[in-house]
Design goal:
81 residues; 3-stranded parallel beta sheet; globular; binds pyridoxal-5'-phosphate
Amino acid sequence: GHLDLAAAERLLGPRTRVVAVSQLSNVLGTWQPLAELAALVRARSPAWLVVDGAQGAVHGRHRPADFDADFYVFSGHKLYA
Ligand SMILES: Cc1ncc(COP(=O)(O)O)c(C=O)c1O
């Protein structure tokens, strides 16, 4: 349930435009290593990093700047919107 960062590093390149990843798996309950992934994305590609916070947003307070996300998205109904 964790990202394979070595595989991610191999997949990223100058033609990668978007990397989308969930922050917290709703199936396994695993938090992804977003800061480490963001560092790889920045080093190896011009891609935007899109983080799905649908689960993460309701399990604690987060500062997207801490993991260098370009977009942090979640559905409002998870927060009783
Ligand atoms: C990580 C994650 N992303 C997206 C969704 C989908 O959210 P929605 O039901 O608002 O479409 C869920 C739903 O539980 C989720 O856990």
